[in-house]
Amino acid sequence: MKLSDRHGVRHLARPRPSVRRAHSLFAVGLLLGTALVGIDQPNAVAASTSAAITVNARAGLATVPDTALGVNHAIWDSQLGTTETSDLLRTAGVQMMRYPGGSYADIYRWEDHTAPGGYVAPGTDFDTFMAGVRRAGAQPMIIANYGTGTPEEAAEWVRYANVTKGYDARYWTVGNENYGNGHYGSAWEADHHPDKSATYYANLVVEYADAMKAVDPSIKVGAVLTMPANWPDGLTAGDDPGPWNQTVLDIAGQKIDFVDVHWYPGGSAAESLPRTSHITDAVHLLREQITRYAGPDAGRIGISLTEVNVTSQGMTSQPAALFLADAYSGLLANGVFTVHWWNVRNGIGQVSTVAGQTDYGDFGMLSSGTCTSDGSVCEPPLNTPFAAYHGLSMMSRFARTGDQFIRAASDDPLVAAHAVRRANGEVAVLLVNRDPDHAHEVTIDYAGFAPSSGEPTVHTHTNGATAITTSRSGSATSRTLPPYSLTTLVVQSAAPATGHPGAPGQPTATEVTDRTATISWPAATRGASPIAKYEVHRQYGAVSEQLGETSGTSLTVDNLVPGRRYTVNVLTRDTAGRVSWASPPLSFTTGAPTTSSCGVRFTRTTDWGNGYVANVDIVNNTDTEIDGWTLTWTWPTTWQRVGSGWSANWEQVGTTVRVTSTDDNRRIPAEGGTSAGFVGEYSGPNVTPTAFRLNGTLCAVL
After folding, report:
1. Which pTM does this prediction carry?
2. SS (H, E, C) 420-458
3. Crossing angle for the helix pair 83-92 and 126-136, to the nearest 10 degrees
4. Among positive and negative, which fits the CA dihedral 393, 395, 397, 402?
5. Is residue 609's pLDDT more than 70?
6. Can you say whether the dihedral through the CA atoms of 415, 421, 424, 426 is positive or negative?
C-alpha cells in the first residue's frame, strides 16, 4: 500500500492506480481492454442517440441479499463515528460496513486500538464503529489482522464482539490483499510471517477459522483471493502448487464460508465505464475456481467484493456514480453477496475537470473537506456527498432486499440496463447513460411482464446534480436519458400480483455431456390453481428460449451446442395460465464428447496476468494417417486472442481461431499425435475454450 501524507501524518492509504501499474507483471486490473467504439474519447459523437432496451422477467438472476450495499470505513477517518456520518449512510441505504480499512487491517491491533506504522484518528475504535453500524441499521464486515496478528488475537476479537458485547458480528475476513506481501514481487501489504507464500497463508487461514469458530461457531470466515485476470491471477511463485487462488482454496476451502476479492478497473472514465461488461465472466471464472478447488459442498462458499472504485478519473464526479450503480448491479445480479465502495472518506488527490465538473481525485463518497498541499484547491465542506454517494443512493431505490434481478440488455454500448422484479409485482429498471455529451432516447420492451399504462415512478441523477429527483411521469416503454445520467423506472404491473404459483427451487444439472444435460429442481408451491407444468427456459442475452416442459421436476434437454455455457431458469405454470417468477439461475457448460476420432489437450504453461504460453496437443485416435489438418475453436469472449504461434499456421478472425498444418507436421500417424504452441493474450477474464474441431470433427478434450 502506498504511504500518503495527509494533515502532516503519514498513514497507509489505498494505492493510486499508477502505483498498481508499476507492480511487476501487474495486469492493470480485472477489466482491462480496448474501450468500446464510441467510448474511447469522452467527447465522441455517439453513432446513434436511440437505444432499444429489453427487460425479460422470465430470465431470473440472483436475489438481492440484506448485505448487498456496502462501504469501507477506515480508522484514520476522524468522522467515522459521528452521528452525521451514520445518518448519511443510513439515508443512502448502506447495509454493510467494512472495518478497520484496507491495508490497515494487517497492522491493526484491536485490543489497544493501535496501528504501528500508521495513523489512528481519535474516536475510531471498534465500539465506536459498531455504534455507527447500529445507528445506520447495517451489518459489520470485520478484517482480522493476518499480517502482524495471530489466530488467538482474532479469536479474542470474536469473543469480545459477540460474547462480551453481543454485537452479533457475522462476517470476518482473514487479512486484506495478502497476495501483495512481496511473494509475487510487489509488496504493499504488511506481512511479518517468515513465509509469504500462498501455502503459508492458506494454512494459517485454517488456524484462524478454527480458533475464531471455537469462540462463536455461527460466524462466517472468509479468505482473500484475487479476481480472475487481476494480478496475480495465474501466477505461481515459490513452492506453491499453483496460483494464489488455487492454493488457498485447495488448502482452506473446507474451512471458509466465503472468499473476498477486490476490483479496480483503472484507466480513464471512458475506459473504465464499459469494463462492467466483463463482470459476468469474471464471477463465472471465480465460481469455477471455487468449485474445482474448494472440495465437496463448494457451492456453500459465497463471494464478497469489498473494494471497488473507478481509480483513475472521475472518482468524485459523475463517472463514479455511473460506474457504482452499473458495477454493483452487475455483481449482485451474478450472486456476489455484498459490494463495498472504497471508501467513505479519503482526502483530496489529483484535481481535474471531468465532463464539466471538478473532480477532486478522492476515493471517498463523502467530502473530507481537505485541500491540496499548496492550499490552491479545497474540497466542498465536510460531509458534502460526492457523485458516488448518489450512485449508492440510487441503488437503494432500485434494488431492495428480496428483489430478484432479471435480464436486461441494451443494443447501444453507451447505455447500460439492469432490472429487478419485486414481490409486489413491480419491475424496476435502472438505465445508465454513459455518454457525457448526448441525451439518448430509449424504448423498453418487456417480456414476461405487462407494464401498467400508468405513469411510472422515476428517479433521476444527472451530471453535477446534488440530489436524486423523484417524480411520476411518462410511460414505462420510452424515456429520454440525459447525458451522463442514472435513471430508475419503477413500473407497476397491469396484472394482479395475487394467485400466482411459487417459483421452483434452485435447479441443478447432472449428466452434462457435449449435447445434453438433465435439469432437476425442487417442486414449487401452488397458488390459486393447481400446478400444470414446469417450463425450462434458456437465457440468450435478454431473450428466453424454451428448451422444454414437463409435469415432473426433472427434464433432460438435448440438441445443445458443445463447449457452450448455458444459463437456464425453471418457471411454474398453473392450470389457469398464471406463471411464477423465474427460479434461481443455473449455469453449466457443455463439454466435448468422451470419445472421438481425435483428441485435443489445451495446456497453459506460463501465465503473467494478461498473457500466457499455451501448448495444443492433437491426437489421432484412428488407424488411418491424417494427411493435412485444420484445427478450429472459438474463444468464449471477445477479448481473447492469439498473439503469435509456432509449429503451425495461426489465424484468428473475430473470435474464431484457425490452426493449419505445416509441411513438417501435416501428417499425423495413426494412433499418433502432433503439437503446436502459441502466445495468448487477454484483457479480461480468460475463459478456456472447451470445444475443438479437427478437420470438422468434434474432438474429445484430453
Report:
1. 0.92
2. EECCCCCEEEEEEECCCCCCEEEEEEEECCCECCCCCEE
3. 40
4. negative
5. yes
6. positive
